[in-house]
Amino acid sequence: MVSHLGWTTWQVPQMRTVVASLSPGGQSSCRTGRALQFYGRTKTTPYHVTIKPSSSPTFIPEPIHDLLVEHLDPELGPWSALEYQTIAEECREAGSRLLLSSVSPLLQLPEDLKGLKGLEASHENVEKLFADNKTRICLLDPKATEELNPRDADKFDGFLFGGILGDDPPRDRTSELRAKGFEGRRLGPVQMTTDTAVRVTRMVIQNQMPLQDIPYVDEPVLKFNKYESTTMPFRYVRDRNGEPLMPKGMRELIERDAEKGLDDLL
User: Fold this and answer.
1) Greatest CA separation found in the chain?
2) Which of 11, 24, 134, 203 is buried most deeply by CB count within 10 Å?
């Protein structure tokens, strides 16, 4: 805690600085029995800090927007399984939830997904699940006229994706959800995989980072050896080393099944 010029600054770990006004006598400006409330957003989670008279700030995590994937296929291939696992793990770390809707009762989830924290699955479709607050659900739609922006964090409680997004060429699978009347936002003009679309949405909504400031790599070439390589026809978030962020095990899956062609993977 640093005090200067009638202000006290608390440095809360991994959060933005919180500043509380002090009276000339050094007492908190809030009245006895009342508290100052500060709301903000870190790179991973929203927060509010409560500063009570003669006390230190208290960090209280708050629920984050839901990430919803309407599973549009009767089966679940290894590609989608890796994506869903990665999305669930990243959502858990960020304090949010991944909900898979429209999962067929006949579909057996892989062992790696069963019981995975941060992942919930439902046989109901998203329209039934959120019938009472449909206007608070945003559909990530490649054909939407408005781009997703940080202000949408206040407008929507959940963000809906139609899996599988990463079709090449795109088959407009999102049209099935568009017809249900959800308000749409676009993530730019380039096709993304499902895990990339969710990751970008979290960066915009939770990290408050505009789309144009996110580092991307388009159509990366994956080199397996001196003679073999594959071009991925999607946009990815770029990591610190300039490489595309992919689910753990995805490169190996692509290399192992390269001879089958990308359509078989999807």
Assistant:
1) 75
2) 203
